[in-house]
Design a protein that fits this description.
There is one protein chain. By secondary structure, this protein is an alpha/beta fold. Helix content is 19%, strand content 28%. The longest helix has 14 residues. It is globular and about 65 Å long.
């Protein structure tokens, strides 16, 4: 298939700029992967589509407020750093803007001295290897909590008033450069109602990289190279999934990140087991799912690997038709947008 096959026309005004309150008040398109039939609900209605004994798998990764603004010590020039990946301790791979100000040896100050940085090296891609240091009252994580901003996707132009609205209510493991946005719709109260119905909840961790926003630039989708992300499945989640399958119940992934974690492990080991590692799995039409029975997901960018994954799960025609209807019905799109559940 070609990348252009996954294009759809999206009016700019349908790109959600701010999250709704309360979280579970967003709309939810219900799509049958068998028949392609569509219904329109709200996210709090999700409980009506879950059965006792089913299990929801949530990604508990927490977004690092990794965008920081500071000055170059030598000149006072303004700079912006985005921490991408921890290499060791306080040494991180970092995006620097403007890059010409961040040559090896250059020193910077952030948050009026809360954090300082020295550029150590430049990668082949042009990213900077940076060593950070903090004042005696902070480590790098507490310093980022004080001075960092959320690394919102480029299509969100409005400033986020509350950093926690770009975190799921169950986020726990710090390490993502972007939120697993399908989970943003859950409230603690809704999760409790779901548990009270007898639906089990398990957690995996996949730290979302900025590669999730990288456009597919090749003509043939099979020529696209996926980014690699770190995942972990704990023993209790692996056991829950095994028992759910043995009981003939459904495993429903919340988000493409949870989906990619489960399918990566099942592909690698032939079953779901407790493990950790890195995955660059690319799921597109023709892929045979090994674990998933249902998927909760947001509406994704045209020609993205994420809309390709959804198409693999419920069929290309079903997916593109659902997106056309969502546009016609003026659903809100992307990270802070509305949701769909595919069963």
């Amino acid at each position: 298939m070609k990348t252009v096959d996954f294009y759809y026309d999206l009016p700019e005004e349908l790109i959600a700029q701010t999250p709704l309150e309360p979280r579970d008040s967003s709309r939810m398109l219900v799509l049958s992967k068998g028949s392609g039939e569509i219904d329109h609900k709200h996210f709090y209605n999700i409980i009506d589509h879950l059965n006792e004994g089913d299990c929801l798998i949530l990604n508990d990764s927490r977004v690092l407020p990794a965008r920081i603004f500071g000055i170059k010590d030598e000149t006072g020039a303004s700079v912006e750093f985005l921490l991408l990946r921890q290499i060791e301790n306080n040494t991180w791979e970092t995006l620097a803007k403007p890059g010409k100000k961040a040559k090896p040896g250059a020193k910077f100050t952030f948050g009026e001295g809360i954090m300082t940085a020295t550029v150590k090296d430049v990668t082949e891609e042009g990213n900077r290897i940076v060593e950070f240091s903090c004042n005696e009252n902070d480590n790098i994580y507490s310093a980022l909590d004080k001075i960092g901003q959320m690394p919102l996707p480029p299509y969100i132009t409005e400033k986020l008033k509350d950093k926690e609205r770009y975190q799921t209510v169950y986020s726990n493991e710090v390490g993502s450069a972007a939120a697993p946005t399908a989970g943003l719709h859950f409230t603690k109260e809704l999760l409790q109602k779901i548990k009270d119905k007898g639906v089990n909840i398990g957690y995996v961790t996949l730290h979302v990289g900025l590669g999730t926003f990288r456009p597919v630039k090749v003509e043939e989708i099979t020529d696209h190279k996926m980014h690699s992300e770190h995942y972990e499945i704990p023993k209790e989640t692996a056991q829950l999934i095994k028992e759910t399958k043995e009981n003939g119940k459904r495993v429903i992934a919340v988000g493409t990140t949870s989906c990619r974690t489960l399918e990566s492990v099942a592909t690698k080991y032939g079953e779901i087991c407790d493990c950790e590692g890195f995955t660059d799995i690319f799921i597109y039409p023709g892929y045979k799912f090994k674990v998933l029975d249902g998927l909760v997901t947001n509406f994704h960018l045209p020609e993205s690997t994420l809309i390709m994954l959804v198409s693999a799960f419920c069929g290309y025609e079903n997916t593109m038709n659902a997106y056309k209807i969502a546009v016609d019905e003026k659903y809100r799109f992307f990270s802070f947008g509305d949701s769909m559940i595919i069963l």
